[in-house]
């Protein structure tokens, strides 16, 4: 088992990292690879979408910022060609990647994934993340099942959902039923029109979503799986809080916009925490 990884399934001997880099937070994987603390992490490539015409230097548009976070557009999607070039760079540089896909329908998610896994350098893909934030449970089930089919049986598939979704438990249950290896609980707040509020103020939303899923798992309302906290992860304190509320790993995103030197701090905090199988105080999960 590698550094900072946790056994997801003893039967399948599947391992997942405790620290993830969010797709779209920083658009250049080469720049991410140069950050202190990035060694051995899966570098994000994507989001990739069928029909995208974005160039490789597209940047996420920021509309405004405040003490609690940033108002920004969704990350621009990459073309399959641009994503393929990044796989080649990763293979040449000796890195592995997490391939993020985005689309409105199951086939729109599967098509670019299949093309890139067949790419000459598709072997560098170590995991797939599919963005299903705001989708209903039936859509999540169908989309996850199609992505799982395209990814194969062994490649980890992460499904990103919204912590503020009133149907969070049902959506997470559908993701697992469709073959998800992990659920990414995103505390981002949708502002409409493809815009999001992201930042330190999202930590409470992320933790509330984690506690909701952990309570539901304890009540056997969903089978449970590896949980990744995404949103408001901006300090060692917020990492430890998310892990105490049920996360098995954390995803670092827009925090690196403001301070790229945070990565080793956040990663150290995540990897120093007790393994997920260790008992966590129930009082921590009830604390906001």
Describe the model.
Helices cover 35% and strands 24% of the residues. By secondary structure, it is of the alpha/beta class. The strands form three sheets. An eight-stranded parallel sheet has the order 3-14-13-10-9-8-7-4. It has a four-stranded antiparallel sheet with strand order 5-6-12-11, with no helix packed on it. Strand 8, helix 4 and strand 9 form a beta-alpha-beta unit. Helix 4 runs parallel beside helix 5 and helix 7 packs parallel to helix 9. The radius of gyration is 17 Å and the shape is globular. The C terminus is likely disordered.
What keywords describe this structure?
288 residues, alpha/beta, 10 helices, 35% helix
- List low-confidence stretches: 5-14, 277-288
How do the strands of the widest beta sheet line up side by side? Answer: 3-14-13-10-9-8-7-4
Strand content: 15-25%
Binned, the helix content reads 25-40%
Determine the number of helices (DSSP H or I, runs of at least 4 residues). Answer: 10
On the 0 to 100 scale, the average pLDDT is 86
Topology pattern, helix = H, strand = E: EEEHEEEHEHEHEHEEEHEHEHHH
Number of strands: 14
What is the terminal separation in angstroms? 33 Å
Q: What is the 3D shape?
A: globular
Radius of gyration: 17 Å
Mind summarizing the main beta sheet? 8 strands, parallel
Structural class by helix and strand composition: alpha/beta
